[in-house]
Amino acid sequence: MLRILLLAAISVAFANELTTPGTLWKAYQTNPEKFVENHTGTKINIEATVEDTHISIYLTPVVSLVDKNGEVPKVICVLPRTDTPKLSNYKKGEKVKMTGNFYAAHEKIVIKQCQGEGK
Questions:
Q1: What's the CA gap between 119 and 111, in Å, rounded?
Q2: Which domain holds residue 60?
Q3: Which of 58, 59, 67, 68 is the most buried (most CB within 10 A)?
Q4: Can you give the CATH number for the domain in which 12 is found?
């Protein structure tokens, strides 16, 4: 019961406050099934460092995020296809704030419909 209350509190926190890739990943690893169940479609605000940008196999622009340079990305933000030209605004090593909707998680946490602050 305590774990469920903790996950519910974390869900509200992610929607209202800035989080980091590491914090999000640790919360996911605590109970992956519950995390996905409680967060699918919820708004996530994240502050991170850009590790990589690319176009996915689905032709969507993607920004990979880490807590600090050199880490293996655990969070990817998928921008809307219409924002493909904005992908060049993201530079490796740059600190960014992004907002999007939690979509899925397995080896990485996927946030879709991401928008970068000031981008």
A1: 17
A2: 2-116
A3: 67
A4: 2.40.50.140
